[in-house]
């Protein structure tokens, strides 16, 4: 059995924190909306969490230097798609800021302008509720306006900064 380390690092460097944070498995969510000209814009986040049932809120974490977030937050509705294990390519394209995710990834645009990815395991149509600066990130609370899910699609999981598939125990 492996014991906890006796010498924890104080004042860890960014690359060390990234490695440590990568030890926690997490899902991948696409955060997308119709831009000012109606063309979909989006990004991928691993910092997504349910926050509250009443009122219905979810949270995402966005890098302060993101050039996509200012355009997303201007949209009246934002779509959150919890990506399935078949969306690894879409996740890479969205995370890289590549615009070709739009042509390579089937999606729908809701009447409110939220962009939802086909084949995801869950979809949420949201509006920005609050934003809080936290170090080099912005914590964004989103009010859930409508949602749906399909648990038959297994989620895409990131662990150790790599994509993985879930398997039942």
TrEMBL record:
Q: Which domain of life is it from?
A: Bacteria
Tell me which UniProt keywords the record has, alphabetically: Oxidoreductase
Against Gene3D superfamilies, the record matches this protein to:
Electron Transport, Fmn-binding Protein, Chain A
* Classification via Pfam families: Flavin_Reduct
Point out the signal peptide segment.
Answer: none
Q: Does the keyword Isomerase apply?
A: no
Q: Which residues form the Flavin reductase like domain?
A: 21-165
Q: Which GO terms describe its molecular function?
A: FMN binding; riboflavin reductase (NADPH) activity
Keyword Oxidoreductase, does the record have it? Answer: yes
User: SMART domains per the record?
Assistant: Flavin_Reduct
User: Which family does the similarity line name?
Assistant: Belongs to the non-flavoprotein flavin reductase family.
Return the protein name.
Answer: Putative flavin reductase
């Amino acid at each position: 059995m492996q014991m906890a380390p006796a010498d924890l690092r104080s004042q860890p460097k960014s690359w060390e924190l990234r490695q440590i944070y990568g030890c926690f498995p997490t899902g991948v969510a696409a955060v997308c909306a119709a831009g000012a000209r109606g063309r979909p814009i989006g990004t991928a986040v691993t910092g997504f969490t349910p926050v509250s049932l009443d009122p219905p809120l979810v949270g995402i974490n966005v890098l302060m230097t993101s050039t996509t977030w200012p355009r997303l937050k201007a949209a009246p509705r934002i779509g959150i798609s919890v990506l399935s294990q078949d969306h690894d390519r879409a996740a890479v394209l969205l995370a890289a800021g590549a615009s070709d995710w739009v042509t390579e990834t089937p999606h729908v645009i809701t009447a409110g302008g939220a962009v939802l990815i086909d084949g995801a395991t869950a979809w949420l149509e949201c509006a920005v509720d609050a934003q809080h600066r936290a170090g080099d990130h912005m914590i964004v609370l989103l009010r859930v306006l409508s949602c749906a899910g399909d648990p038959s699609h297994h989620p895409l999981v990131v662990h150790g900064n790599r994509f993985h598939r879930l398997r039942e125990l």
